[in-house]
Amino acid sequence: MKITHYLYNAFLIEDGSTKIAIDPGQNLWIFKLQSLIPQSEWHDITHILITHGDPDHHWQSDRVAKVSGAPVICGKGLTKIENGKTLVIDPRGRELTSWITYENLYPLDVGESVTLNDVKIEAIKTVHGQISIPILGFKIKKQPGLGERTGIGSMGFKITIGNKSIVNLGDTLLLKEWEGLKPDVLMLPIGGLGNNIWTMDIHDAIEAVKLIAPKIVIPCHYNVPFLWIKKMAVTDDQLFKREVEKLGTECVILRMGDSVEL
User: Fold this and answer.
1) Residue 221 per-residue DSSP state
2) Model's pTM, two decimal places?
3) What is the dihedral angle through the alpha carbons of 165, 65, 255, 33, rounded to the nearest 10 degrees?
4) What is the largest CA-CA distance in the chain?
5) Could you tell me how many helices (H) and strands (E) the chain has, helices first?
6) Which structural domain, as residue segments, surrounds residue 133?
7) pLDDT by residue (tens digit) across 53-112?
8) Number of domains the chain is built from
9) Contact call for residues 201 and 194 (beta carbons, < 8 A)
10) Could you tell me the CA-to-CA distances from 238 to 5, 171, 217, 218 in Å, in that order?
11) ∠ at Cα 213 (209, 218), nearest 5°?
């Protein structure tokens, strides 16, 4: 199995003929506004997972689905039913004004699962934190919730391929419900700013590792670009790695485009 990371929470998981794209979003740096997962990888993707509707997670999902023909799995909160059709929030729409259809869609609620081409995908509860973005000396704050685009449809996933399991938590705060998941690989955000802003910070992410008890941890969604700011959600991944390894758990740091083979 090969896992490749593309900044934020964008990953490819490859195992034999299986190729899973997690959060095929957009690079938000103004000097590199393009797909996080390269278009050269799109055609043979077999599964697409979307943890929520923010542009760094969702922006390219419909395009990847069209090129690959892969099924799309997301949280039910990313969808609505209108005139008997299940619609998904438009990846590039404004707020909640635009919704589109996906040809092969599987919305899941917490605890629900689906098995597609011998890959089992189970939905795990997550909660997106509030966002606080410094812009020209001001702070723009967004509080996820009903009627709000930020963090819409927040959901984590446990992916089982053969005898290996991977948990990806998207952008989330710390939740006790994860106790005992025990996956082979855990992907979790560590770039929160404390006080429930954005995601877990290092302290909460370490507590999550203790609860979940994975074999390998891959931190993500930190030191990421946003518009003209080259690094937001700044944190010390080497400190996180040292603290995780004190627990007897392996920690793998993946930069943009880096891979690890299991």
Assistant:
1) S
2) 0.96
3) -160
4) 54
5) 4, 21
6) 2-261
7) 999 999 999 999 999 999 999 999 999 999 999 999 999 999 999 999 999 999 999 999
8) 1
9) yes
10) 17, 20, 13, 12
11) 55
